[in-house]
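Retro notes
What went well: the complex prediction finally ran end to end.
Inputs used:
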Amino acid sequence: MNPDDQLRSLRQTTITPSLAFTAKVMSAVRDEATMPAPIVFPWKRAIPGFILATACVCILYGRSIEAWRSVDARIATQRISDSQLSIANAVLVSSCGWIFLALSLSAVAIWLSDRLVDHMQMKST
Amino acid sequence: MVVQVGRTNLSAAEDESDVEKTLAGNVDAFEGIVRRWQGPLINFAYRFCRERGRAEELAQEAFLRAYRSLASWRRDSAFSTWLISVAMNLYRTEYRRRPPEFIGFEDVPEPRDIRAEDGGLQQRNEDKALHMAVQSLPTKYREAVVLFYLQDLSLAETAQVLRIAEGTLKARLFRGREMLRKKLTVTEERKEHQ
């Protein structure tokens, strides 16, 4: 017997489904059919938020770099006074504040959307 | 138990009609699909996991997945091809997640029973050895061999399920057959030496 025929002969060896198989599958299918459709993530509402958040992060990043460079340049030319240094520090601290604020807002947004999804799931059940 | 499950009995028109009814909201119409395809899907799963109970679990999950994504069946391929693709993806994932106990070809048992010569056991042992040899093939060759030879799909259908060109499939089948031939020859030689 050549390998092709030998392999084809294996088709003869099959197992038969158990008697309850169809009933089990149909029961699972009916359960599936009665389940409420999963809630789709609200991309349409979320996308503007994501774009805004990305823009904020980019602006903050750009300003931080700008502030850092200006401080760095003044130190390099050794014409920086104590008062200027304190202003530079203030700028850096305020940038950090913005970053902290953005992160906090993101965390609150995530928490709120989680609560909203829970609330909608409870309503649907 | 040995039963012939022939694809010739499976009606594409009935499948299509049941799909339409199911999509229209008649869940019971899906039972026709399950009845027609339970044999091929369970046997297909069995060829991946070699455990009867597990094969039924996998086939059940494949039917559920098919039910969930029934609307995604585009009529550009036969329902059978689509259903086998759904099952194939599931079985492949499961095979990676929980591979069956690996048996190296050198560990494939030889027919030792003296009754094998006249009791049909030799044939069964040879079949078992060949099954194990198929199982020990690398994934891409095993999938091609199982679908084409054991699931009785055509070249075009097998290529469609595996999402490869027919030429690539032919090459894989050729290479798979060569690997099997070599493995079986080694076993035969070992048997003669003993």
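What we learned: The radius of gyration of chain A is 32 Å.
What to try next: split runs per interface for comparison.
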